[in-house]
Amino acid sequence: MASDISSRSLYRRTLCDGQPTCSQCFRRGIKCEYRMIPDSVMKKVPAGTQLVDNQEAASNAEAAGLLSMLKNVSDGEAFEALQLLRNGRDPAELTAALRDGVIGLSQTSLEKADLLPQQQHSLEFELMMKHPIAYPIGSLVRSPNMDPEHFLQSSGNNKSATNAAITVHENLPQPDLSPFGVRQQVDQMGSGSSRITGLSPPSKLFSNRLLSVEISRWTKVPISNELSIKVLSLYFEVEHPLMPLFDVEFFLEGLLGNNQFCSCLLINALFAWACLKYATVDPEVATVGHAFYDESKKLWAKNKDTTSTTICTMAALQYMSITAFAFGAGEEHERYLCEMSDMAEILELFGPDPTEPQGTGISNDTSWQLATAQMAWAIFNYLTIYYHMAVLDLMRPLTRHSGSVTMLLRPFGSKKATPNAVQAASVNQLKKIVLHYRKTYPEPLFSLFWHSALLYLANAVLQDVDLSGRNPEWRFYFRLCLTCYQTLYSGYPLVRQIAQSLLSMALTKGVMEAREAVAILEGLEMRGKHRRVPDQKMVSLIVDLDLAVTDAPAARLETLAQKFRQIQIHGSEQIGERDA
Q1: What are the backbone dihedrals phi and psi of residue 184, each rounded to the nearest 5 degrees, phi first?
Q2: Average model confidence (pLDDT) for the chain?
Q3: Which spans are transmembrane here (predicted)?
Q4: Is the CB of residue 372 less than 8 Å from the CB of residue 349?
Q5: Whether the predicted pLDDT of 544 surpasses 90
Q6: Which segment of 251-260, 404-413, 491-500 scores lowest on mean pLDDT?
């Protein structure tokens, strides 16, 4: 009997003897906690006494939650979480980042992205000292209004992407006519024509002169004056500073009919591009953009041979070219770009010989000369703004060379001035640019001009997987790029095929599972449900930048997108076979 009592007492102490460190907790390396206490003991404990370390218990619960989450994610995500955990990340933060993490990135991840391991080479510091504009020093600027717990959900959530975009843009009013802010109604004048009615007057005008514009004077597209004001106001706020093809004062006066710096072709081409930008606020306006683009094509085809060579026509062709690019209309994009370039030569905007007499394309009118200089400067900026992309393209053939790690670039003083180091410095700058843009600006301010940085950064981090293995940093930035493309898809149809191509590259490298890639694309496609015109195909855009060095046709958008569709179909068949 005594032996039995002693045995049971020893058994209880084995479970947890309540000492500073019991044998079982010592063996497991955890802190002792009274998890199961008999009622007889609880009755003797004074009220308000804390028996459990709440902070320690919460930490253990977070670790258990992370372990449970890791059982249901892909190998790549589990590896990434393990690496971040070993680097000292909080388990609760990792659990939150993994939850609903198919494409959405938590704002916490965005806030702490600059804390991820960054390769700082001495060459990069040398570049920062010599070229502080291209290689600025310092960490990312944090937005004081950013909610660190806010999730950038995929478009499959209950809240529409449109409403989410509108709520974060304080200068734009809420939609009051329909879920998308646009509706069709019969003209009250009895004409029976369908007229697109705009939103309520904007709370912030770009210029009061827009209130005096009768837009029907310039276009046959049935758009209301109210909606045209909102489209132009957003355009002048976001797009025009990036590519200022015309002087705003000249244009507004021309829009009122006070000078020659406006034309029907320019208005239709400008609105075709501007409506795509406004579609990030109101997705149904994308349909209006198609109508303006079709109208501008008709005007150009009809009057091409008789239209005089003017800066208005040249600006219109540039807008038509970039709009065609956004639609994915490759042949039209190249044709309008070539016609614009030919017109620039006629107007002597580029490379005139200062020793030669002034050509016939030059006018003595001061206003005309100012407008021409504005156009030339805008086109020059458009062609040269992508500095870091140019650096990556220059270094790409060298980094593919087997001796690139030891190859030194003589103009630099650093002992590590290799092509790989130059490339890494530009990639780091692209990371900062993309993160800053994503964190600082609301969705309506996202521009397609941002796409080039996304494309080059996505390629760079996928290449980093090949060079350094599955570094956890690559997945964060790859998802960031896809999340940004997801946002752009509301207005720009081309984005879908770019996303397909990037996912195809990730699948080919074996760093992403097919089901994850398909889920990412489905989240993106939710943004395009409003689109009534089928996406076109652009066969000339290079997406796989490394592959293009040796096999350009295989690196093109259409080839990679088709490859992804084949993988998608094959994956669906396999899932169907397993379900059967």
Answers
A1: -100, 135
A2: 73
A3: none
A4: yes
A5: yes
A6: 404-413
Is there a contact between 117 and 473 (Cβ–Cβ < 8 Å)?
A: yes
Handedness of CA 405, 410, 411, 413 (dihedral sign): positive
Q: What stretch of H or E contains 227?
A: helix 225-238
Choose the weakest-confidence range: 15-19, 69-73, 311-315: 15-19
Q: Which of 277, 273, 307 is nearest to 290 (CA)?
A: 273
> Helix, strand, or coil here: 306?
coil
Query: 251 is written with which tokens?
Result: 């244009």
Across residues 117-131, what is the average pLDDT? Answer: 68
The Cα–Cα gap between 410 and 536 comes to: 46
Coil, helix or strand for 195? strand
Phi, psi of 542 (to 5 degrees): -85, 130
Please check whether residue 504 is in contact with residue 561, taking contact to mean a CB–CB distance below 8 angstroms: yes
Name the more confident of 290 and 47: 290
Cβ count within 10 A of residue 220: 13
Lowest-confidence range among 14-23, 35-44, 96-105, 267-276?
A: 96-105
Q: From CA 349, how far away is CA 368, in angstroms rounded?
A: 12
In angstroms, the CA 164 to CA 382 distance is: 30
Pick the more confident residue, 204 or 428: 428
Q: What percent of the chain has pLDDT over 70?
A: 62
Parse the chain into domains and list their residue ranges.
Answer: 107-149+386-579, 161-381
Q: Which residues contact 570 (CB under 8 A, 6 or more apart)?
A: 514
Distance CA 540, CA 435 (A): 28
- What is the phi/psi pair of residue 125, to 5°? -65, -35
